[in-house]
Structures
1.
Amino acid sequence: MAGLDYARERRMSRSTTVQATVMQAPAIDQFEVLNDVLITVEDGVITAIAPAASFAGTVDHVVEPGSVLMPGLIDLHIHAPQWPQVGTGYDLPLEEWLFAYTFPLEAKYSDLSFAIDVWDSMVPRLLANGTTTAVYYGSVHGPATTALAEACVRHGQRAFVGRVAMDHPDGTPEWYRDATTEAGLEASAESIESINGLGSPLVAPIVTPRFIPACTDEMLTGLGQLAADTGTLVQTHCSESDWEHGYVLDRFGATDAEALDRFGLLQTSTVLAHAGHLTTNDLHRLAHRHSGVAHCPLSNVYFGNAVFAARRALDAGVNVGLGTDIAGGPSPSLFANAAQAVNASRLLEDGVDANIEAAQRGVAGSRIDALAGFWLATMGGAAVLNQPIGLLEVGRRFDAIEVTTERIGVWAEVDSPVRIFEKIVRMANEADISRVWVDGDVKRR
């Protein structure tokens, strides 16, 4: 019913006008300021951007001086069932963390009422953090995963929602896995049909093998075929940690990227989480397949065992965006992850062990700056998903956030626009985001 109601509402013509100064990153090395412009939006699409002084009509919303308008943020990697454990349990390595903390929590989503309570807490909170587009892992439970998609429709967040498939007896506990490969494939197909049946232009399904250690060869083959047959995007983990990367090498004699490609899972806009242990050949493979990486810099501190070389991947032609990896990462803020992406790149370039000579300590040419960090959270994510979002320009969807600089602090005597932008990227959080639009509709005010 939620999907039907939503579809009926969307048939009504919608228009809005917003007057603002815009700050954004059209390219990884390009900072753009649009001073005092009027943005016209029709049915969610930006149809015009012109100087506000040239407009004589009524403006629906004015972003006042002291605040700026920015593109909505795109989170490529969220484990929705892990929302209740954000910020906890970082004392164990990944392979132990899953069994000790995460799988027991995810098993609770057989209780649909519990699931709905979590979704109705999480989705609005992520919107409040400026996350206008989210790529979600659900649990193995079909009803809970559909309820997650319904929550995204209800709260108006653009989202890709996937039922997690996992059937390997060695990589999953007996009490939390698909009963059989056939049952798991059937449940994933039903989940795709159910989410598509909601009729929402904002919410789509995504095929979701958890990762290779949790899936049999038969499951991986079947999911690759399911994605191809239904035209559905794919998400999974890839070369996340020493353990996961090494496990795949031992099992297949091939890297994670090579193995996923064999199973037909490296497709256009496949979202590969973490990818901190990719080889040079892996990067070329991803670029050739037009698959992308969800860089999760905060999570990688705890579970990655390495720094993802974002600059190297981008230079190889791989699309890269950002992910929070809730709850592998302790913050739902993409601003925090953009700032950490910059920090991680500096650590990679400079090295971390003072006992090694400076010239040999780091990896030259690794650093990115705050502009690049924000680009990853906007245009980078849009490129991975191949969606017309991530930038405020004519022809793209109007996903946007209003950010106030009052708490951050701006000094007219010293702060140029680029300095204000840097402060926002490094310091802004939920408290500074005063309004959020998705597809032209206000979701936070």
2.
Amino acid sequence: MKRRLVVAAAALALATPALAALPQVHARAYLVEDGQTGQVLARYHERARVPIASLTKLMTVLLTVERTKPSDVVTVAPGAASVGESSIELRPGERLTVRELLEGALIQSANDAADALAYYVGRGSEARFVAMMNTRARQLGLRDTHYTRPDGLDAPGHVSSARDVTKLARLLMRHALVRSIVRRQSATIAGGRVLHTWNDLLATFPGVFGVKTGHTSAAGWNEVASLDRRGVFVYGTILGSPDRTTRNADLSALLRWALSRYRRIPVLRAGHVYAKVEVGYGQAPVDLVPARGLIRPVRIDQPLLERVVAMAAVALPVLRGERLGEIRVYQGPRLVARQPLVAGRTVKRPGALGRAAFYGGRTLDHMWGWLP
């Protein structure tokens, strides 16, 4: 009969090098998170309710992708064409696709593109769309957020926080269309309009692939960045930097610091014995090894925990490579690796004579044990 044995290994401490100090940042607030687990790596006033400028467009875009098709055609409302400031010079009555307006709002941070989407999704009413924004914010648990405009221009009561902006960016980046747009530094849309990004880190920081920048006089210089480098996935948000250069330098420093918290290591070693299984008939236990080794990026300041589920004993024959268990490696709540455990060698079932010799020998051992 096959029996199962669960073994939870002790936490495995990593060899931790000296950790770099958190950089000095000149901003009202910031937040850095692990992009896979949501664990906070660094924070400063992350719940402060402050103006966020064009980071507002993250919600405008989210409602749009949830309620429209990229191929939908939008007729530009007069109110959208007249919004001013950052603009792609839309004209009243002009027709563009939702995708083109999303590109205008995300790549060039155009206020008229964002407002055109707001009028379209709000069925001709910007006020109705703003109400939808606030309803969606409550549904998502963005407790520090209140919107009064779809574009992010300064307005009383229009606020959010680094925490809420980061959460919203993570949700929005689940949409493939958004991911494909925010990584682009330029695009050409209707009317021969050439769009250029405000996100300097797309060109200067390898691995950055989004998400959004923003600036107004009240909000300062803001950005939420997404970073994926060699499997390390990080979000960094900075709000209220004094100028564009400082924002770029401070956010880059935070992202470099975040990368320093991770290291690629062999979390499962090929050929390493993680458990043994009994096979009977006096044979040595069979080693259980991973089906293959795995290298993963892990945080250097948290231990790993191995959890093994394997057979305690199996009936022969056993074939090399036969699956007899499983190993999972965790770091905090995150499942870092999962692999079958397989037999390291083949063990054949003894023939009739071999089995008879085994049982006979065992009987003699028992009999000798009865003697005084």
3.
Amino acid sequence: MDNLKNTEKVLGALLIGVAVGGILGVLFAPAKGSDTRNRITSKGDDVKNAFSERVNEFLEKINGDLQMVKTRASEIMEDQMDGKSKLSS
């Protein structure tokens, strides 16, 4: 569980750093206002897409872990039921 929290913190910090760095880089570059706005929009889209991708990867990992837990819990229950039926035979 701690690993999950650490991953979330690192992911959040990374995305914030990318967003801030991209915006600052565009704002301080010499260009026309319309070009700057287009670059900011483009960077915003890039950050949004990167964030969505990371969230999807994270959710896929969680889903895989959840399926593994469900499978293991089912196996344990089956083992318990087999043990009870052997005792009653």
4.
Amino acid sequence: MAVKYPAIGNKVTAKIIETSGDCTIGMKVGDEFELGVHQCGDFCGYFYHNIFQWVTLLQFDGTFPLFPDKDVMVWECPNAGNRVKVELKREKR
């Protein structure tokens, strides 16, 4: 069955920008994923669980004052042994 995700709010793209160690599911620098409240695709569920609220914030036009660019956030994976750093970027639809 093909899954079709609704285009709700802004598009949020997660791009892997740095790794330290080997990601347990094999994500590598340069990999990109479209994320949203309905969509986590092949992105790591453990990491997605930690950033879900930030994905939601970006998808629905929220802002957070500690980030200088309101459309970009950078987060690190909660796996301390194999850190993956991701950039979340909002694109207006």
